[in-house]
Design a protein that fits this description.
The protein is α/β, with parallel strands linked by helices. It has three helices and 21 strands.
Length: 183
Amino acid sequence: MIIVGTGGLSRDILSFIPHEEVFFYDDNKTGLFERYKILGTINDLCRTQTNDTIYLGIGSVGDNSVRNRIYEKLTRAGLMVSPLIFPSKICHGVKIGNNVVINLNCEIHHDCTIGSNCVLSPQVVMCGAVELSDNVFVGAGTIIVQGVKVGKNSIIGAGAVVLKDIEPNSVYYGNPAKFIRKI
């Protein structure tokens, strides 16, 4: 298994995904991470062209840009990056895009769609037929009710209860979720 990045999300990956041989790549660190050797930079990984599944251990809090840039670099090099889905409940008919993180204890109910480059923080609940467009960040403990559509590049703050569609490039939070500002 190859993990790109040595942040807190990498520690989480190590605790939830069975592993025997783990290799790390990180542009900002060398030596060891959690007793595993850091083999080099992301460019080094792109040059080695391995067939292993790669996980992005790079978290994001409201800004997916670093993880997205690294994902694009790896996929351009022909490497496969796996969506990162921690133990959660995912029902039938759910569609998940590329470069997605679904954190602990989320509930994704029937026929939901999660676009590419999305992050769901812990304990997010998406009721049936919710649609998240690309590059959406959903804060911890958020509830999105059935049929809601969330526009591209939006941020939903922790603990929000989303009852209506969210426009693209917007920040919403609260119970019920309210528009805060444009991005």
